[in-house]
Amino acid sequence: MRKISLLLAVTMMTGAAAACSSKDSAETKPWDQAAPKNFNATGFPIVDEKVTLKLMGSKGANQGPWDQMMFFEEMGRMTNVYFEFDTPDAKIYPEKKNLAFASDNLPDVFFAGQLTSFDQINYGKQGLLIPLEGLIDQHAPNLKAMLDKNPSIRRAITAPDGHIYALPQVTDINRDLMFFRTYLNANWMEALGNPKVPETTDELLVLLKRFRDEDPNKNGKKDELPLSFLNAKNDSLNMARTYIMPAFGALEDRNNQSRLQVTGDKVSAAFMTEGYKEFLKYMKTLHQEKLLDPEIFTHTDQQLKAKGQDNKIGMTFHAAPFSVFKVEKPEDNAKYPLVLPLTSPINKEKVLTPRPNIHLGTFAITKNNKHPEAMIRWIDYLYTPEGFMLGNQGVEGKSWKWLDEGKTQWDRITPEGMNKEDFRARNTPDAGAMIPILKRMELNYKQVDLVNNILNKQAEQLTQYAKDAMPLLFLTEEEENRANILKNDLMNYIAQMEAKLILDKESFDNWDAYIATLKKMNVDEYVGIYQKAYDRWKATK
To answer: pTM of the entire structure?
Structure first.
């Protein structure tokens, strides 16, 4: 196992040439240059004379103007670094970002940049995005400490050519990793005499049938929907695959969204396993027994919530009980039973796949930036506890406050008559955008918020069962191009077959034909691409 220091030395010696622009292979890297006069290597301000840079980022629909956010105002006051903002709405941002690269009309910095692996490799190779690892070593002690402490983060953000072109958002907050969970309708459970919370797929089937048959909403109608959930990103079974499929021993990669899994260093397709097949059979049973909401393939999140508010849903997958069910008081969220990971006749291990804790491509510095040292110091602050609170909540004393001298509890400050989240979104970029930041559990847990505390405790219960199906991988440009082509065709076919098998429009007797079709669609090549990427990840220590 190589030492981190050796890796960094090799990366910096061999990687510097690899990332040079083809136009000028002798170009001097930012960290090789002497620090400019208008720059302080430590302390604040970062620059003595005001610097104004061009910033481009994806603006959330709920956010206020970035040039009016207290976050950027406070960072400017502290650092003397200010920005001219180009913040297209999130829906059109990818198009605007691509146009900026294509026209060479680049900002100085991308923040909430949504930079894909392709962006980082392609534009890094062209010299449009500058390598950051040397700047990190020299001027970003908090970032460097995070990467040294967690080598898996460094591996995840290092491109195949050995350079770091973009910085991530990282979280160690259990609630973020276990964001969605499985809840039962507390009122229905009480109406049935508070039966045991299911621990197996068979026990769940029994409970859902009781929801169907015993009129738990007490309206005298057969209108109960025992199980309903969000049609996530037009992938109707995404939630069920995440929260029911692991009971059958099949896990699905959530870090790379590849729908693959790694077992004993071997990459395989979860959608070709026996566990996946048994999961689909189980979902077919739920459909045939009228235990599954028939609108899961079509309804919106708003329609799902309307059903929950109308007391028609027995079990769902969501971020909190109040997100679906009609919860009268904050403390009542604790009454809704949390279903822990299930087991099945073919699998006795309780397991679930958490959400990714690393989100790539949130920040990058372009070739146009004349102050890269100042910018890396600016962003390094967001990986400190103080930077997390500023980016996540806003300015102390204006949008949040400590409640005691020991700083063991804090609470939000919200103007009278204003929604808490609306106020936060108006003043902090983390509310509504994926920004570069280190989200810290110890600070999140100090918030005085009843619902937050309930959800954090539930997340702690689930954490013990968390297991990644595959680490976050960095594909080469060629690999990503080919994988995307293969994935598009494969996923379209798999989605069609999922619906047909569950709705009994295709027989499980034809499973071998399904596998044969996947083979013809080059599924082995698709798996092989990720195997190569995994092998590289495994070799990088």
So the answer is: 0.84
